[in-house]
Amino acid sequence: RGVAGTAPDLAGRHVLVTSGGTREPLDPVRYLGNRSSGRQGHALAATAAARGAEVTLIAAGVEVPDPAGVTVRRVGTAAELRAAVLEAAPAADAVVMAAAVADFRPAHYATGKIKKRDGVEPDPIPLVRNPDILAEISARRARPGQVVVGFAAETDDVLANGRAKLARKGCDLLVVNEVGAEKVFGSDHNEAVVLGADGSRTPVPHGPKEDLADVVWDLVRDRLADARG
Ligand code: CTP
Ligand code: CA
């Protein structure tokens, strides 16, 4: 679907997309992060805008340029991402959680740079759990009929893990990517299956991240239309 030929089938809809990966500071110069580039979330935001939606993009730690025609809020940590999502969710017909949210953060933040010392082994870094934002917004549904979409990257038993994760999170759709070294992170392509809470299963062949984004928006649009009746 080229931009010129894009149907405005999301006109009048407001969608919220999270993108990138959160960064959890350890000291003023270091953080715990992940390899999410932000390209899939940005493709989702750009595609939704091209289809006529009003788009809010919450971008965590991304190094790709802001997509055009989209309201962008930049965040760092999972706590900041959560606050931004909870604030924007009540206005959103759909929430797509493409960001990689750190499961853990350092239990303590060192206000000064952590220094090495000769002859002394470093201290271990204790971690604590971050809240599960997807599970929280799925349970809460800030707006009636709101469609909630999660993303999962799995290396083994992709479908079984995906189904279990969909049920655990309570979202409507879960995009499951099969990942291995060099396979998805930082690349322009994806291979995925979109699982629905209604039991549906939509395979998405290897292709540009925009194609996967369009499949996601097709599924979201259909669910919004059903809810509207
Ligand atoms: N997610 C979230 N909050 C977290 C962790 C994950 O909102 N603290 C969201 C992600 O944005 C993604 C989905 O949950 O949409 C699945 O993330 P994933 O890391 O695959 O799920 P986890 O439950 O953290 O499972 P795992 O132990 O496999 O990492
Ligand atoms: Ca995780």
What would your notes on this structure say?
With 229 residues, the protein is of the alpha/beta class. The chain has 5 helices and 12 strands. A hairpin with a 2-residue loop joins strand 2 and strand 3. Bound molecules: cytidine-5'-triphosphate (CTP) and calcium ion. The site of cytidine-5'-triphosphate (CTP) has 14 residues, from helix 3 and strand 9.
Strand arrangement, major sheet: 5-4-1-6-9-10-11-12
Please provide the count of β strands: 12
Q: What is the number of helical segments per DSSP (H or I, 4+ residues)? A: 5
SSE run: EEEHEEHEEEHEHEEEH
Oligomer: single chain
Terminus-to-terminus distance: 27 Å
Structural class: alpha/beta
What is the 3D form?
Answer: globular
The major pleated sheet works out as: 8 strands, mixed
| Radius of gyration of CA atoms, rounded to a whole number | 18 Å
Low-confidence stretches: none
Question: What fraction of residues sit in β-strands?
Answer: 25-35%
Question: What value does the average pLDDT take?
Answer: 93
Which range best describes the helical content: under 10%, 10-25%, 25-40%, 40-55%, 55-70% or over 70%? 25-40%
Present as ligands are: cytidine-5'-triphosphate, calcium ion
